[in-house]
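@channel sequence for tomorrow's demo:
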Amino acid sequence: MIDSAMPLHSLRHLNSFRLPVHSRKLINVSSISMLEALLPIDEAVLVLGGGSNMLFTQDYDGLILHNQLLGIDISHDDDFHYVTGAGGENWHDLVMKCAELGLGGIENLALIPGTVGAAPVQNIGAYGVELRDVCQSVEAYDLDSGLKHVFNTEQCQFAYRDSLFKSYRRYVITSVTLKLTKYWQPTLDYGELKTWSAQLSQHPTPLQVANQVIMIRDKKLPNPDLIPNVGSFFKNPLVSLASAQALKTRFPNMPQYPANGEVKLAAGWLIDHIGLKGHSIGGAAVHEHQALVLINKQDATSQDVIGLAQHIRVLVEEYFGVVIEPEVNFIDANGYSHLDKAISNV
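structure tokens (generated this afternoon):
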């Protein structure tokens, strides 16, 4: 437990749920030389960027490294553009810079909150595109050894909202290099992008796609600067083909998407279908327009959010026989945790 006699550092501005939590230590890392001077680190460490995918369930009894590394470098060869963003750069700003320059490949990932350094951890994705589709390499420092590593795409072990950096948390990502083809074709076969593109007389530019994604997301998702939230709270569950067929028989309108021999369901649809939009526990609530998003409606506590998340998960399993898992990272006093442990500590 944190020694109450020690000065505490507020993390309210470093988590997009704006929960009133604290850490024992906090260091803002703004240069590689500053980071190297700190390494190796033999204590509990949590690396934070924008805190857009973190749910603190308790005060953190350790050191927070706030990644503030900045800088964007762009180079080219005959076939590709290579875009390197420092770990502390805002991800959406990088997307828009590329789109404005006519560099296609990441425009579908516009308006995803967080930093460049956080993007590989979750293998962020939206509208048919994932980071692994365009990632050439990730530069990271091992907090234990102090050594720098450069991981290629295969070594990053990308999977659905997963990566090496999510399973081994002792890396701080200092930069990400994207490999964007000069022979870009837009990815427009997902949801409302497909409907929009069908009305066009010619292929849109990367900037036009990015702006359309922003428009779609603005309609569906609350701005975390105005309504505190961590974006999509739950992962879209994967089920077997047989389970998917049985569910389709019961619920003919249920959205389903092929996924490497399995079927991906829309977690938001499942939550919405059982009437949980707007449902609240304490100060936490399911967003009224997007059931996949939980919001800090009014002075929510960690316990409010945990209780609401568990309530949703239980009802979805009871109604559909499908288990949905959180996409958000749970952080307790000792570091990364999970929903079941958080519930037991409430």
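heads up for whoever presents: The chain has three domains: 9-67, 72-220, 229-345.
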